[in-house]
Design goal:
336 residues; alpha+beta; D-amino Acid Aminotransferase, Chain A, domain 1; D-amino Acid Aminotransferase, Chain A, domain 2; six-stranded mixed β-barrel; 6 helices; binds pyridoxal-5'-phosphate; binds 2-OXO-4-methylpentanoic acid
Length: 336
């Protein structure tokens, strides 16, 4: 298979190897790499009926020296276990999680996009409740699997700004599962996402489900804004996904001399921002040109150009991920 690394989007590509382990009778089996990309599970699996599943997303970066980096994979492991606890699934031990990710990357080495192509290897760990349970109870068997594929930009624009629209729908409830990376949140976002794309927006922006007056996040990434005073602000809410990229940017913004805070972001205070963006593993930093609200189309920096602070944060984050600039302690895990 020859891949044009530069023209990749964010689509499934079957790579040769994935990791799979089963949990049965109270413990995880060792697990193994397999070439079988089809899951064989009971028709009554709770993952299928009641959404008892959670997942993660992280990337491997091809370094300039030919090696491969993972970025903060320990945080993905912790978040998977928080999601698992919320949905009554067994935790995956951190060592097993990290070893599985590393072994899948190594086994699919030829699919790690080379340095300089702008593409990365996207890794998808997945934990599902399986077995013969048809009542609304936790499953008694589970599968943990990790597969991967090379990807390019998630939003079509990549580092070019795109526009978003505020949604009337909610992706999560105030005390629901918004902070867990579980499939149900994404199922809830499919219709709003399609409606937004049908109107030529990249995706929608969800508001807080209680008052519909504050920005929560994008369907697949967190939101941030840069104020006139060079402050980095990102929404604080119990119903958004705690983005590892967002917490990394909070740290890096401070390092770059900015004030960086999590705070409520009221929709009627968008004027405070001179730049805005969406951030996440798949989205990296995707600049937001403008947001369509009920009343107006609000442009931040520009619909066509990236703001200087967004660019600076992007350069810092991506350089660290590829190993071109020194990383804060513990952020980089070398696969090889
Ligand atoms: N918010 C949602 C809903 C997401 O799906 C993601 C992607 O994982 C993010 C935020 C960003 O999180 P992270 O930076 O950990 O990838
Ligand atoms: C990620 O950024 O890893 C995501 O999970 C976002 C989306 C592809 C669901």
């Amino acid at each position: 298979m020859t891949i044009d690394w530069n023209s990749l989007g964010f689509e499934y590509i079957k790579t040769p190897w994935r990791f799979l382990a089963k949990w049965k009778n109270g413990s995880w089996e060792e697990g193994t790499l397999t070439e079988d990309s089809t899951l064989h599970i009971s028709e009554s699996s709770p993952a299928l009926h009641y959404g008892q599943q959670c997942f993660e997303g992280l990337k491997a970066y091809g370094r300039k020296d030919g090696g491969i980096n993972l970025f903060r994979v320990d945080e993905n492991s912790k978040r998977l276990n928080r999601s698992a606890n919320r949905l009554r699934m067994p935790e995956v031990p951190q060592e097993m999680f990290i070893d599985a990710v590393k072994s899948v990357v190594k086994a699919n080495r030829e699919f790690v996009p080379p340095y300089g192509t702008g593409a990365t290897l996207y890794i998808r760990p997945l934990l599902i409740g399986v077995g013969d349970t048809i009542g609304v109870h936790p499953a008694d068997e589970f599968i943990f699997t990790v597969f991967c594929m090379p990807v390019g930009p998630y939003f079509k624009g990549g580092m070019a700004p795109t526009n978003f629209i505020v949604s009337d729908y909610d992706r999560a409830a105030p005390n629901g599962t918004g902070a867990a990376k579980v499939g149900g949140n994404y199922a809830a976002s499919l219709l709003p996402g399609e409606e937004a794309q049908g109107k030529n927006f990249s995706d929608c922006i969800y508001l807080d489900p209680e008052t519909h007056s504050k920005i929560e996040e994008v369907g697949s990434a967190n939101f941030f804004g840069i104020t006139k005073d060079n402050e980095f602000i990102t929404p604080k809410s119990p119903s958004i996904l705690p983005s590892i990229t967002k917490y990394s940017l909070l740290h890096l913004a401070e390092k770059l001399g900015m004030k960086a805070v999590e705070a409520e972001v009221h929709l009627d205070e968008l004027d405070q921002f001179v730049e805005a963006g969406a951030c996440g593993t798949a989205a990296v930093i995707s600049p937001i040109g403008g947001i369509q609200t009920k009343d107006e189309f609000h442009v931040f920096y520009s619909e066509t150009e990236v703001g200087p602070v967004t660019k600076k944060l992007y350069d810092e984050l991506v350089s660290i991920q590829y190993g071109d600039r020194p990383a804060p302690e513990g952020w980089i895990f070398e696969v090889e």
